[in-house]
Design brief:
The protein is mainly β. It has strands spanning 39-43, 61-65, 72-76, 81-87, 102-107, 111-116, 121-125, 128-131, 139-146, 158-165, 171-172, 178-179, 197-201, 206-210, 216-222, 224-225, 232-237, 240-245, 250-256, 268-271, 279-282, 293-296, 303-308, 318-323, 328-333, 346-349, 352-357, 364-368, 374-379, 388-393, 404-409, 415-421. Strand 20 and strand 21 (279-282) form a beta hairpin. The protein is flat.
Length: 424
Amino acid sequence: MKLYKLCLAIYLAYSVGCSVFAQQSNSKIVYPHLTSKTKTITVETTSSIFNPKFTDFSDGVAWVQNDVTKKWGVIDTIGNILIDFTLPIGNIEDVPAFQQGVCPLSIPGKGYIIINKSGKIVVRLQETRKLSPFIDGIATGFLSVKNPKKSTPLQPVYDIKAVFLNMKGQVIWTHLATSIQPFDQLKPMRPFNNGLAAYYDYVKRKWGYINKEGKIMIPAVLEEAKDFSEGLAAVKRDGKWGYINTKGVMSISNIFTKEPENFSSGRAVVYKNQQKNNACYIDTLGKICTTDFYSALSYIEGYAFAIGALKDVFTPEVTYVFDKNNHILCKLNDFAIQNSDGSPGVIFKDEILYKYVPGFDRDDYKIIDFNGNTLMSGLTGTFNNGLAAFSVDISESNQGERNYIFGFTDREGNVVIQFKKNEF
């Protein structure tokens, strides 16, 4: 079905607060701003350029790094320091998130431990070689297990097995434990969706799905497996992608050479080949619902973002926003929906729509509506636990040295926590 060429004048009247729907184009953009209630946290640095390292909030806490010692501490959502800057975790990419009050860490010389929000060690995992962050309360790890058949009193022999651990550090689902090869990479269990989570079998070298009791519901016969969404999961079998249902039956044949997207609002983006100008939408029966697009994103709250294909009637590099009936809400010029690294340029999380551009040092997020209007700017992360990371320039003029402030803001732009460098 060809999309209508004329833009329908649709205005969706929803509240301004956290609404992602159409707003007046002249709405005032919200920027983070300091208030009398802003809490200041001093971060040590020896650099003349202040560039603090900190994570987004998760489970009510965020990690912050001391730039001098390179050690990390933990703060809460009102700026209290819960764990002083004492933990040598590494780079920001290595910092795991808290979940249900605990967090697994790898400490040089101490191996893996699980700590709580006060920094107290809950359990030491002395035989653990590798450990993933907790996902739905479960971590995937490589564990050294003594082999009684090969060991002698003077020379014990250990096997390395892939196991699952709960938040107390206890091994669970022992029937899923498998031996691994020396150079195997850790492949963590995926989140549960529609009651199932993808897991990797290191013996079969394939993916399958388990339920929340660890029972195998779909055997490990899949080369690749994505999360379930709306009762279907994209999987790769025999070198091509298709969709299975929660029974493991291939509901949409594996005919796609390029990895497709998850279903949302009863639609999914698939690609006819590995080249561009080949994206289109299918329904849950596998029927094509739209024309071809240069690129396209999964539906968000019943609306899709797509760029018209070169061979189509639409102008290239014009992004169209349309509903499931192919009615166009609007068209946006110079509005990239896919970044150069392949990541989506539009993200929907916790009822908030973001325009996203990855950066070398800090990412850029703007809250937008479905007409592409910017509602809030200056963010370097998404909102979690009611706060988002930000970085804004508060210089009084465009001349001279820039004056950036960093920290966390609420949805109204009130800076709740500001990081400030120490003064010598």
